[in-house]
Amino acid sequence: MRTRGTPGLALWLILVVSLGACLGACGKTTPLATDVPKPKAGPVLKKGRLTESQAVIPAHDGGVGNVALSPDGKYLATAGVEDGLLKVWDIAAHTIRCEGSQTYPVTTLVYGPDGKQLLTASASVKASGGFANSHGQLLVWDALTCKQSKVIMEDARLVEDAVFAPDGKTVACIESKAHVARIFDAAAGTFLKSFEASDAGSPALGFLDGGKGLLVTSDEGALFYEVASGVKKWAIEDAVSALAIARDGKSFAIASGVALRTFDAAGNPLRVMKSLEPIDGALAFSADGRRIASGGDDGAVVIWNAANGDRLQSVRPHDGPVLTVGFSPDGSWFASGSEDGTVALFGVE
Questions:
Q1: d(CA 340, CA 60)
Q2: Tens digit of each residue's pLDDT (9 = 90 or more) over 217-237
């Protein structure tokens, strides 16, 4: 059910069909295109019918690698896999509030806890003179203007994931080609400490236990570090293709192929779920920790009951693999981004 105080998906339906009309009347906003089509329907596989509130929006050329919902539910930010573009959608105004561009393809896009900042990571590998040169950046943006406010890492080696600490005072990232995870002061942009990380595929990280612990994952497994001491406390040896951490930092979920598992903050297993398709990077908790969303290579998004592992809802809005998912702050709807360049928005049943 939808709670009060958060705009519903009906506004997004208005947004899609209003973009063309907004070209001459929206000031500094930049619509996606002059001929944005009406949203297409995606089947709800659970009951074989359509939900009332849904939209599929052409968003980026070359795929949508990231979606992020602002803490107040007013904005949706998206980032392209190949175009390097960052876009912030204003729900109430029915248009795009701002756009920004980054030198390299964006690998991560997250809001700060106060909703005033966005953190992006980027990575690129280019062949030159018979050698593969890797590049990456870690940048902080003003979330309302899409202007860069801070450069934390300018020419790093493949920054493939990044996250704010729960208090917003520090940020962590994985620089995979350097085999390291780093923590920086968010305000000053200064380096604080580093932890060992793998250069294997599917790198991800996140804070646990109120920022006291840092979990670093990859195709080689998961490592948990105590942030204060830098000591590695425990590890999970199974390959990890996706990571999601509950907002309270007391539990996390990892995907290994079609297996989706949840753990407490001490690494103790809680629940095992089986997906129909491999989960590769698209995984998220709802704000209350009661639901988990996962995206598959078949273009489908599945909503799970985190407590008992039940499959609650399944939709297939995309024509390509799902690369990213995220819940609205009140948990009443979710967004997903796909390799086909679209963003989908659906009500949670």
A1: 9
A2: 999 999 999 999 999 999 999
